[in-house]
Structure formats: structure tokens, C-alpha cells
């Protein structure tokens, strides 16, 4: 990032981020003449990809957005559901071909949207932002993940994606199982470990986990964040200072993961499990704790019917993984850009934002009075608490395009015992630095 929007105090204005649609700086666009904000879609269609579950807040909102878009424009939407991994692993190839969709949901950050932007595969949205005024609905910190410079580093340059929800990672827990074993919601790290021990002492593996995909990487990062500073996060995410993978924070995280595997708090079988496996294990009541993102919240409200559940912020830490939500991006090869921009605008409208907020999501441009669901208010309150203390730390895999797979691979080795914590940190530290050096060279 060339302009340091991640510095302390610049991440969030807590309530304004979510529900006020607060005003931000103007777009860098010089002209709106090329953007038709009332496109006639009669006889036309757009192809749309996303990877949201149909029952999630975003899945519900996107379905409603499609209906409204077709009503307003006369165009039809050819919707194609994709997996997160499917889009992530093939985006560069597909978007550089005639098979590119007109609009898709894509992950934010240097390693994903930033990489595609630097490769010329995404449309510059500056004119659309100016025409529709999206910058006035997004808090400055949310725009960090929407803008990228020529090297694909977030936080400055042009708009290449638009987020319309926020997200963060916290601890989902089975209230019934906590009550059965007389466990109160922990407020310190020691209390959290004591809860893990109580479950294991009663023959229960406490943590639903996945090392084949993101959940364990996010837990590792959260453990490193336990005593980390904002400067530590900024150096790690934006290359502003030396990152030592053998410092106290990373060492604590690696040692704790190994310790929790050895004690049976995390099953060694997670090396072959994906995020869906971990989430459905929590839903089934197999594991009473699941550390993962707010994107599961709406789904859990619909699918968990056999026990009471809730969530809490990771105890003993002021920071947690989190940021704006994923981005709507428009491929450079899109054949119907004006219609794609219109669809984005509909997802930013008050009715759709209220749908997100009342179904377990975190809207970015809703009115507080529109959020009436108690469960959703609980989620948003947790997010407000986190953002009020400048607690969003982005995600562990963001710094380089290859670090997601490298971190997952390293954690699999740590879990199965083929790497010691020190060797694991040496390995991923070297991979991180190689990726950063490549980006810096342009």
C-alpha cells in the first residue's frame, strides 16, 4: 500500500462503517460520460458468478438483487454458482479468455483482486464510482480493499472492485454444550484454553477445523495477533518494515497450534478437511467451537435447529482478521459493463442492504432502523466492538499471490508433525519474503 490507510486510527469509524453510509473522499475518476446509469437491457443478458451459499445473508441478497435488476433493466441474468476455491484457482486464466463472466464476486487483497488488477484483467471502475456515488457510501477504510495501484497493492490508485458488506472472524460456540459442562463464555485466553481442556477431558474434540482451506490459517493468524501491535499488522500487510517470522507473536501462534493438536483440541485429521467440513461439523454438534468468519452467520441461523448457538470475539485480543467483504469486480473482457455496473448499484441500495443486515450479514450502507433482526444485531454489535478498537487486521494470506496455498501447506505439515514449529516458521517466512520481493520488483 503506497498511502498507509492501515495506520492506527485510519482503519474504521465504528458505527459509520456499517450503517450510516458515511461520506468518503471523492473518486479519482475524471469523467462519467462513458457510464450509462440507465442501461436498456432488453434482449440482453449478463453472466454472473458468485460463491455464496443460497441461505447466507449475501446469497439471499444477491437473489433479490437479480430479481430487481431484471425488473429494472429488462435484461436477464445467467447465474453460475462457483466455489471459492474454483474461482480463486482459475480466475487469471478464465478472465483472460472469452469465457469471462460480465461480473463476479472475488476475494479482496493484494494477492487476489490486486493481482488481477495489476495484470489488466479487471475493469477500472473510477468512472462508475463517480457516476453512481459509491465512494460516498463506503467508509474510507472500506475503500482500502477497493483500490489498487499499478503493482496491485491495496489502498491507493484506482477502484477495481466494490464491497457492499463487511466481515470479520470470531468464535462460534454451542451454547447447549457450554451449559452442559458448566463452561462460561471466556473473556481471557487462559479461560479459553480451560474451556478447550474441559471438552477434551469429556471426550469431545472442541475445535472444528480445516487445514486444507482457510480456517486453520485464520486461527494461526489470530493467535499471532493476540499480543501484536497495529504496526506489526501494517508491516506484515504492506511491507513497511521487517517481518520476523521467529518473533514472539508468530512463535506463540505456531507453538500453540502444535500444542493444541498434541492435546487433542484440534484433530490431526484436519489436514484433509475443507472449510465446509469444519462448518458442517459445528452445525452437526460434533465440535462445540468453530473459529471462522461472519459469512457463516446467516447460514447458521437457518441451518442450526437442534441446539442454541452464539458467538464471541476471540478472548484476550484486541484485533482479529477482518475487512470489507469480498468485491464485485467487472472483468476487462466483460461484454456488458454498463449492465454490470447497474447490478452493483442495486446491491448497494437500501432494500438490499437491509436484507444483508437482517439475515446475518454486515451491511455497509444500511440505515440502523432497517436492521430489526435480534440475531443480526448481535453480530453487528460484535463487529462494532472490534472496529471501535481499531481491531480489523485483514487476513494472513493477503500479502502475496501464493501465500494462501503456502500457509495452508505449511500448517498441514505442522499438524501432521512433519515440521516443527520453528521449521514451519522458517519455511513460510522464506515464502512470504520471496513473494514480497517479487511484488516490490514489479
Write the layout of secondary structure elements.
Blueprint: H1 14-20, E1 45-50, H2 57-73, E2 76-81, H3 84-95, E3 103-106, H4 110-118, H5 126-132, H6 140-143, E4 147-148, E5 158-159, E6 162-163, E7 165-174, H7 175-180, H8 189-201, E8 207-208, H9 214-225, H10 230-238, H11 248-262, H12 275-283, E9 289-293, H13 297-303, E10 309-312, E11 322-324, E12 327-329, H14 337-347, H15 350-357, E13 362-363, H16 374-388, H17 403-416, H18 421-441
Parallel strand pairs: 1-2, 1-3, 8-9
Antiparallel strand pairs: 3-12, 4-5, 6-12, 7-9, 7-10, 7-11, 7-13
Helix pairs in contact: 2-14, 2-15, 9-11, 11-18, 17-18
Describe this protein's structure:
The chain is 44% helix and 12% strand. The protein is globular. It has 442 residues and is of the alpha+beta class. The longest helix has 21 residues, at 421-441. The protein starts with 13 loop residues before the first helix and ends with a helix. The strands form three sheets. Strands 7, 8, 9, 10, 11 and 13 form a six-stranded mixed sheet that branches. Strands 2-1-3-12-6 form a five-stranded mixed sheet. The protein has a two-stranded antiparallel ribbon with strand order 4-5. The model is unreliable at 1-32 (pLDDT under 50). The protein has 18 helices and 13 strands. β1, α2 and β2 form a beta-alpha-beta unit. It has helices spanning 14-20, 57-73, 84-95, 110-118, 126-132, 140-143, 175-180, 189-201, 214-225, 230-238, 248-262, 275-283, 297-303, 337-347, 350-357, 374-388, 403-416, 421-441; strands at 45-50, 76-81, 103-106, 147-148, 158-159, 162-163, 165-174, 207-208, 289-293, 309-312, 322-324, 327-329, 362-363.
Amino acid at each position: 500500500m503506497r498511502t498507509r490507510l492501515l495506520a492506527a486510527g485510519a482503519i474504521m469509524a465504528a458505527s459509520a462503517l456499517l450503517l450510516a453510509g458515511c461520506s468518503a473522499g471523492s473518486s479519482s475518476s475524471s469523467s462519467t460520460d462513458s457510464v450509462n446509469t440507465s442501461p436498456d437491457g432488453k434482449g440482453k443478458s449478463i453472466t454472473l458468478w458468485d460463491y455464496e451459499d443460497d441461505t447466507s445473508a449475501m446469497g439471499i441478497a444477491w437473489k433479490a438483487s437479480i430479481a430487481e435488476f431484471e425488473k429494472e433493466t429488462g435484461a436477464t441474468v445467467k447465474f453460475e454458482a462457483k466455489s471459492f476455491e474454483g474461482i480463486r484457482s482459475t480466475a487469471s486464466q478464465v478472465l483472460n479468455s472469452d469465457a469471462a463472466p460480465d461480473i463476479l464476486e472475488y476475494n479482496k487483497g493484494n494477492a487476489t483482486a490486486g493481482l488481477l488488477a495489476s495484470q489488466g484483467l479487471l475493469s477500472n471502475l473510477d468512472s462508475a464510482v463517480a457516476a453512481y456515488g459509491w465512494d460516498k457510501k463506503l467508509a474510507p477504510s472500506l475503500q482500502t480493499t477497493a483500490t489498487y495501484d499499478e503493482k496491485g497493492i491495496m489502498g491507493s490508485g484506482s477502484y477495481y472492485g466494490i464491497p457492499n458488506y463487511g466481515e470479520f472472524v470470531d468464535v462460534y460456540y454451542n451454547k447447549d454444550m457450554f451449559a452442559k459442562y458448566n463452561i462460561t463464555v471466556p473473556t481471557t485466553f487462559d479461560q479459553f484454553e480451560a474451556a478447550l481442556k474441559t471438552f477434551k477431558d469429556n471426550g469431545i474434540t472442541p475445535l472444528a477445523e480445516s487445514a486444507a482451506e482457510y480456517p486453520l490459517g485464520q486461527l494461526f493468524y489470530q493467535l499471532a495477533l493476540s499480543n501484536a501491535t497495529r504496526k506489526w499488522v501494517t508491516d506484515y500487510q504492506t511491507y513497511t518494515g521487517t517481518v520476523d517470522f521467529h518473533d514472539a507473536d508468530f512463535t506463540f501462534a505456531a507453538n500453540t497450534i502444535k500444542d493444541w493438536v498434541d492435546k487433542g483440541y484440534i484433530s490431526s485429521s484436519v489436514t484433509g478437511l475443507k472449510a465446509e467440513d469444519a462448518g458442517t461439523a459445528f452445525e452437526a454438534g460434533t465440535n462445540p467451537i468453530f473459529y471462522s468468519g461472519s459469512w457463516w452467520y446467516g447460514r447458521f441461523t437457518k441451518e442450526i435447529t437442534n441446539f442454541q448457538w452464539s458467538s464471541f470475539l476471540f478472548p484476550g485480543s484486541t484485533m482479529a482478521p477482518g475487512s470489507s467483504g469480498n468485491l464485485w469486480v467487472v472483468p476487462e473482457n466483460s461484454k456488458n459493463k454498463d449492465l454490470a455496473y447497474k447490478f452493483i448499484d442495486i446491491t448497494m441500495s437500501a432494500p438490499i442492504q437491509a436484507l444483508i443486515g437482517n439475515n446475518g450479514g454486515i451491511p455497509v450502507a444500511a440505515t440502523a432502523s432497517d436492521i430489526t433482526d435480534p440475531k443480526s444485531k448481535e453480530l453487528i454489535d460484535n463487529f462494532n466492538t472490534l472496529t471501535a478498537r481499531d481491531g480489523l487486521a485483514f487476513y494472513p494470506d493477503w500479502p502475496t499471490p501464493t501465500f494462501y496455498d503456502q500457509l495452508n501447506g505449511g500448517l498441514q505439515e505442522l499438524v501432521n508433525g512433519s515440521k516443527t514449529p520453528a521449521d514451519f516458521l522458517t519455511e513460510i517466512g522464506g515464502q512470504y519474503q520471496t513473494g514480497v520481493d517479487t511484488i516490490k520488483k514489479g
